[in-house]
Amino acid sequence: MPPDLGTESSAVLFAGPAAIESHISHGANSIHVTIVRGLAQFVDAENPILAEFVDDEFSRIDRADAFLVDPLKRTDYSAYSQYIRGCLLQGEAIPEGFSAFIYNRSAGDALLAFVHAHDLTAARFRRILWAEHLVAGNLWKQEHQFVAEDRVQPGVAAELEALSKHEQWWARLYVAEILVQHPEFQTPALVERLKDDPHELVRLAITRPECERQQREKEQRHQEHNDQPAAAAPLGGC
Questions:
Q1: What is the CA radius of gyration of the chain?
Q2: Number of domains comprising the chain
Q3: pLDDT at 27
Q4: For a Cys-Cys bond, which of 9, 30, 116, 159 suits 5, CB 3.0-4.6 Å?
Q5: How many angstroms separate the first and last alpha carbons of the chain?
Q6: Which of 38, 178, 186 lies closest to 103, judged by CA?
Q7: Domain housing 198
């Protein structure tokens, strides 16, 4: 069972979509943060019912108001950023499953959530914002066919290269997710550097396609021999 989040939060959380929508409509962002705090550790739960429940709740939170103001339905990571900020202030570890989840879901929004949660100098803050802006602009132009799908505009590669060497793991994780989700940004040197990254989440992200390919081949071999599904790959790697 999910944890007890307190009387008010639990009532909203388990009352169903209608109650949550009602609180959202009244701007109850504090409820969002409370729900994220209570459920972040269960994002990668082994129980599929619990994992699906968390995914559904986070979907309501990070897209809650976007469709009202943005026809592109851009995700809203403000509650995630406040949760991350709270963890930093209280010296609490941010669950790795949660970080992997939000980066896999929307790498650019996750990067901005982390950068806004940290106390960075103005220069470092602006540098990361500029890098994300350039990458997002390149992706937008590809999506809307202003440039070819495999076109990487000048300056973007240099920004990804710089971020791949950033001191903060969450900046390097952004690069890994961008490279995996958009292979046209990859260079051999960049991929190899991230494969050797000191942070496990970065290494897991950049090697995810290879792990998934190996898992598919493993499942196919099992099915050919005894029609039994292969065991899922562990979190720590292939």
A1: 19
A2: 2
A3: 45
A4: 9
A5: 29
A6: 178
A7: 121-206
Q: Tokens 């069972």, residue? A: 1
pLDDT per position as a tens digit, 223-232: 777 755 555 5
DSSP state letter for 41 = G
Residue 8: the pLDDT is 39
8 A C-beta contact, residue 199 and residue 172: yes
On whether both 9 and 83 belong to a single domain, the answer is yes
CA-CA-CA-CA torsion sign (205, 75, 93, 161): positive
**Could you report the per-residue pLDDT of 176-218, keeping only the tens digit for each?**
999 999 999 999 999 999 999 999 999 999 999 988 888 888 8
In a 3-state reduction of DSSP, which class is residue 92?
Answer: coil
User: pTM of this prediction?
Assistant: 0.80
Distance, CA of 173 to CA of 199 (rounded, Å) = 9
Nearest partner of 74 among 23, 33, 109, judged by Cα = 109
| C-alpha span between 62 and 58 (Å, rounded) | 6
